Amino acid sequence: MDFTTQPKPATALCGVVSADGKIAYPPGVKEITDKITTDEMIKRLKMVVKTFMDMDQDSEDEKQQYLPLALHLASEFFLRNPNKDVRLLVACCLADIFRIYAPEAPYTSHDKLKDIFLFITRQLKGLEDTKSPQFNRYFYLLENLAWVKSYNICFELEDCNEIFIQLFRTLFSVINNNHNKKVQMHMLDLMSSIIMEGDGVTQELLDSILINLIPAHKNLNKQSFDLAKVLLKRTVQTIEACIANFFNQVLVLGRSSVSDLSEHVFDLIQELFAIDPHLLLSVMPQLEFKLKSNDGEERLAVVRLLAKLFGSKDSDLATQNRPLWQCFLGRFNDIHVPVRLESVKFASHCLMNHPDLAKDLTEYLKVRSHDPEEAIRHDVIVTIITAAKRDLTLVNDQLLGFVRERTLDKRWRVRKEAMMGLAQLYKKYCLHGEAGKEAAEKVSWIKDKLLHIYYQNSIDDKLLVEKIFAQYLVPHNLETEERMKCLYYLYANLDPNAVKALNEMWKCQNMLRSHVRELLDLHKQPTSEANCSAMFGKLMTIAKNLPDPGKAQDFVKKFNQVLGDDEKLRSQLELLISPTCSCKQADVCVREIARKLANPKQPTNPFLEMVKFLLERIAPVHIDSEAISALVKLMNKSIEGTADDEEEGVSPDTAIRSGLELLKVLSFTHPTSFHSAETYESLLQCLRMEDDKVAEAAIQIFRNTGHKIETDLPQIRSRKKTSLMCTLSPLSRSLNADVPEQLITPLVSLGHISMLAPDQFASPMKSVVANFIVKDLLMNDRSTGEKNGKLWSPDEEVSPEVLAKVQAIKLLVRWLLGMKNNQSKSANSTLRLLSAMLVSEGDLTEQKRISKSDMSRLRLAAGSAIMKLAQEPCYHEIITPEQFQLCALVINDECYQVRQIFAQKLHKALVKLLLPLEYMAIFALCAKDPVKERRAHARQCLLKNISIRREYIKQNPMATEKLLSLLPEYVVPYMIHLLAHDPDFTRSQDVDQLRDIKECLWFMLEVLMTKNENNSHAFMKKMAENIKLTRDAQSPDESKTNEKLYTVCDVALCVINSKSALCNADSPKDPVLPMKFFTQPEKDFCNDKSYISEETRVLLLTGKPKPTGVLGAVNKPLSATGRKPYVRSAGTETGGNINVNSELSPSTGNRSREQSSEASETGVSENEENPVRIISVTPVKNIDPVKNKEINSDPATQENISSDRGKKRTVTAAGAENIQQKPDEKVDDSGPPAPSKPRRGRRPKSESQGSATKNDDINKPISKGRKRAAGSQESPGGLEAGNTKAPKLQDVAKKAAPAERQIDLQR
Q1: Phi first, then psi: what are they for 896, rounded to 5°?
Q2: Which keywords describe this protein according to UniProt (predicted)?
Q3: What is the DSSP letter of 471?
Q4: Whole-angstrom Cα distance, residue 686 to residue 701?
């Protein structure tokens, strides 16, 4: 056997061999015999030890010289010497001898070797005492043995196992917490070499290791457990087979006699799994066999074991051994009740430590939630609630649904556990907001569900709901302001049935309070038969309102006797039910009454418990005069707009209305608490509000509580009558467009009234909208704007007429949002009107009387209005593709503030998931924004939106059914379609235009491809490939349109392939394309053509510098080949409908840019005070109008604007909206080919620094993109919001001028 050797420095040893062949000792060492004293022997042995320590394996002469001495030291005299120091020194010598003479030991007798190693093993016990003066020598002995691997010599012995067992037991017994890491390391080296270099591990040797893992031994000597654990980890590859054999003998063959540890197999499996699961690779299938045992107790033991293995925090057993996991899950349906119970208990730990397994557990917990055993149903609830309280994300909606179902269980214990568990979750996540708003929304249904249980017939359920309300929904121990805020917003968020249940709860408590009050009144009357009879009836009525009415009758009678005898107790109860009792007084009274009835000698007092039930029901723990005052203040804040209504999930209007309803209910149950001048003053403000329901509720409160107003508060009485007259009188003033300064308030009021009370105002508002809003206000320019060239002005400089028009647009939107239907086609007409405003750049009449800054305001209002309408599904359905694309182009507006505010509104709606996913595609156009900060803001918006959507999908398992509208990657087809219809994208092979498309694509894809979640890169690539197998649903038969679509797809594929090496993997699922944008793939249609050349690909990917250019047109023309263009001419207004006819104007309409580094003429315009360069353009070939499409939109709220830098776009021919189309209209397509189209985008550095031109450049002429079409006849008509029509176009087909770009607003 080879032993590890290490050369040591040679040392000259002058040994002397006697002539007669006696033992040679080192110099200075006399003969060591039994005739010398022990001290002398120790002295001489120390010198021998030093000599052997200094020798190395290469000292052949010394080895031969001291061989007799080595044999002499192994004699019985030394091995059995009674002195421990002598034995220690001899052991050290023997260890060095094995080192020096390796690989062959000087001892040839197997018996002698056995005696020597057993002797050395016994000396190792000295390691136990670390404070011993000889500890260093013991450590040297251990170190030497471990370093040389001396025990490996024993492998040649037949009974070596005895030596190894003795060694292992010795080392495990001496290890303690006083040893340093070196001691443990040498022990491990010594034992691991025996295990790994031997022929196998016997059962006895294995037992000597495993016994240290048994809980009893583990608790006695933690260090031996740690040593065994590290040893097993180190030798896992070798010892695993031995462990498998042991468990196979015990578990499968049932041979428990093979080891004394057989009865601890499950404890050992648990410990071994915790140490290293690889130790049990062959054992786990044996456990699967045991799980199917016919013995229920045996199955129970295995289930308990596997529950610990699967449920431990760092365990991946469920994923590594799926068959065992599935077999274990089958025990949830075991016939043995304790097995099912144990399985359910395990689920709690599994959910907390392995949320990824929740999906597997859900179905089994669902079955067990209907288990016939009450205890199992109860534990299912405990399991789910425990995990949810730990972290709400650990349980999905389905699991919470099981708890919800059990609130109606037939057993009271189960119902109570379910209700209390849900209440605790509500308090933790909704009231305390411990996990944010998303968690609060996830359990927001709990409050409604718990209150719905009040409809149950069981008095126990009703009482528990009342207790939950007082302790969890609106905790009574909160301060008054906080408690009322909680109640205020709870009431505002409840569903109608929950509101009714809460109202009923207060009503029942008030009735019980009345019964107790009547009982006390009977106590004040003289005793009589009638009085006793009335009192008995009252007691029976009260008992019915307490749990277990049978027992309650006896307790109520006893309580009545105590009341008759104790006048103090009676006065306390009278104060408790007094209308003027405050919440704090009520708390004191309840505690005082309970103290008087308590019996110290009786720890459990059913009588006292019953009285407490009664007191809790009648005590006013929530409402008193101070609480009502706090509620009214909250409502005032909502009216003033200073409350946190939006943060609490309700609109201010909803908060005000629900607050009034709450006060109305409380005015029935606590009328006395309203008697204060402050409260009535606030109610008078509500009477002056224009909301009928608010006013109605305020009147009802006055009716319920105001019976003392005339005597106590006369000033309130007179003001109340005046307010009622103002509220109930009809709107007397008419709207006058000639005085726009006085229009703002009426327009805002009418808008909100029509939205909040559509049933009453929908029909009357239609005529107001048609005759005044559209005809008189929006379609007329009564004043002339200031021609200062600015693109934006501060709010105070905006003309009153434009402010009125902005509010008129908001009124149209609010009116439609109130109706929430399009039966009258009013929404179609409104959308056409808004689109016409975008096409005309804000100058709807095209009379050129409105200033540039006012036009910016109106463009922003129109774009925001379309987004706002898109939030309502019924209007989202009818928004056409052209209208969506017009709305999208507002984010590339020439005015910086318009771009900024529009992007903020878009982000605000998207982040709240109010807008559909396609609106996120608009952010791709931000790649063309010339301002770096705007691009950075857009990117942050994208990151936030994508993060929110992904998190929403994770936390809402049910959301997987709506992935098409939620999954961020599904924005890719919308983006591709939007870019394919980009008006600046006119030629599919133009490299510069393709580079623009590539930048827009990468602006979005860069954020989406930050992570490759669920192989999303391949998924997006698959979407682009699938689009090439469809046609553009907007123009399915137009080859040019489809070619542009396929070209954008190829650019997207080029970008994805170049940026991700993971996109070539298989897509996890086949993507679904939106049918509104793409046709169904044809069966035999195959499109493997590449629409961009290899050279173009290289140019796109190498980042060749782009030519100069500036931001494009405000409202870019939308190309849809094959549609006939129409021109809008100036029109007159007659009757109910207005037909608008306008010629193409050189100063209005869609704007475009020409890509040219050397512009023919340049000028400077101004957005605020910042000059920007204008590049003139030449006429562009016909771009046809667009077909229809559906999309969603965003809230339009005005925000404070900062005056930042923006870019002016070049003016081209005006677009026109057409409502009715003549089939014989044609446009001459002849003419010069279209020049290179200018790019919207960032200005080159050369221009960004050199744009400071002279002021007189503003007046330079700008070459127009096209001329106005020939004059057309004016046709009479009128424009009504309910049925807006634009005029038919006149004959312009035979003109040789370039074709005009049009927007068809009818379709």
Answers
A1: -60, -45
A2: Cell cycle, Cell division, Mitosis, Nucleus, Repeat
A3: I
A4: 11
Q: How far, in Å, CA of 357 to CA of 352, rounded?
A: 10
- Per-residue pLDDT, 466: 92
CA distance 748 to 764: 16
User: Reduced to 3 states, what is the DSSP secondary structure of residue 816?
Assistant: helix
Q: Tell me the residue length of the chain.
A: 1307
Contact 65, 24 (CB under 8 A): yes
In 545-689, which ranges are continuous DSSP H helix? Answer: 549-565, 567-576, 583-597, 606-618, 625-640, 652-669, 677-687
Contacting residues for 728 by C-beta, under 8 A, at least 6 apart: none
Segment 1107-1116, tens digit of pLDDT: 444 444 333 3
Q: Which residues of 63-101 are buried (b: 16+ CB within 10 A; e: fewer)?
A: bebbebbbebbbeeebbebeeebbbbbbbbbbbbbbbbb
Tens of pLDDT, residue by residue over 165-222, are: 888 888 888 888 888 888 888 888 888 888 888 777 888 888 888 888 888 787 788 8
Burial category of 5 from C-beta neighbours within 10 Å (exposed 0-12, middle 13-18, buried 19 and up)? middle
Averaged confidence pLDDT in the chain: 74
List C-alpha distances in Å: 792 to 923, 933, 1167: 22, 19, 6
CA distance 171 to 224: 8
Q: Kind and range of the H or E element at 1164?
A: strand 1162-1167
Q: What is the DSSP letter of 427?
A: I
- Is the torsion defined by CA of 365, 368, 370, 375 positive or negative? negative
Sort 281 into a burial class: Cβ within 10 Å, 0-12 / 13-18 / 19+. Answer: middle
Q: Which residues pair with 1163 in a beta bridge?
A: 1174
Task: Annotate 195-259 with DSSP letters as a single string.
Answer: HHHSS---HHHHHHHHGGGSHHHHHH-HHHHHHHHHHHHHTHHHHHHHHHHHHIIIIIS--GGG-
Structure tokens at 1301: 């770009």
Please say whether the beta carbons of 988 and 1043 come within 8 A. Answer: yes
One-character DSSP codes across 298-353: HHHHHHHHHHHHHHSTT--HHHH-HHHHHHHHGGGG-SSHHHHHHHHHHHHHHHHH
Backbone angles phi, psi at 1170, to 5 degrees: -95, 115
> pLDDT (tens digit, 9 = 90+) per residue, 1175-1201?
333 333 333 333 333 333 333 333 333
Per-residue pLDDT of 498-520, as tens digits, reads: 999 999 999 999 999 898 988 88
| C-alpha dist (Å) from residue 439 to 242, 491, 739, 928 | 50, 20, 51, 38
Answer yes or no: are the C-beta atoms of 705 and 671 closer than 8 Å.
yes
> pTM for the full model?
0.50
- Taking each helix axis from N to C terminus, what angle separates 480-493 and 625-640, rounded to the nearest 10 degrees? 60
CA distance linking residue 1301 with residue 483, whole number of Å: 62
153 sits in which H/E element: none
Taking every pair of Cα atoms in the chain, the longest distance, rounded to a whole number of angstroms, is 147
Q: How far apart are alpha carbons 291 and 296 in whole angstroms?
A: 9
Per-residue confidence at 959, pLDDT binned at 50, 70, 90?
A: low
Distances (CA, A) of 968 to 12, 172, 686, 747, 944: 82, 59, 45, 39, 11
Strand, coil or helix: what is 790? strand
User: CA–CA separation, 895 vs 888, rounded Å?
Assistant: 15
CA Rg, the chain, in Å?
Answer: 45
pLDDT of residue 1176: 35
Place of tokens 């992007």: 903
Does 157 or 980 have the greater pLDDT score?
Answer: 980
CA 831 to chain centre: 35
Residues 159, 162: Cα–Cα separation, whole Å: 6
* Amino acid 129: pLDDT: 85
- Number of separate helices (H) and strands (E) present in the chain: 55, 4
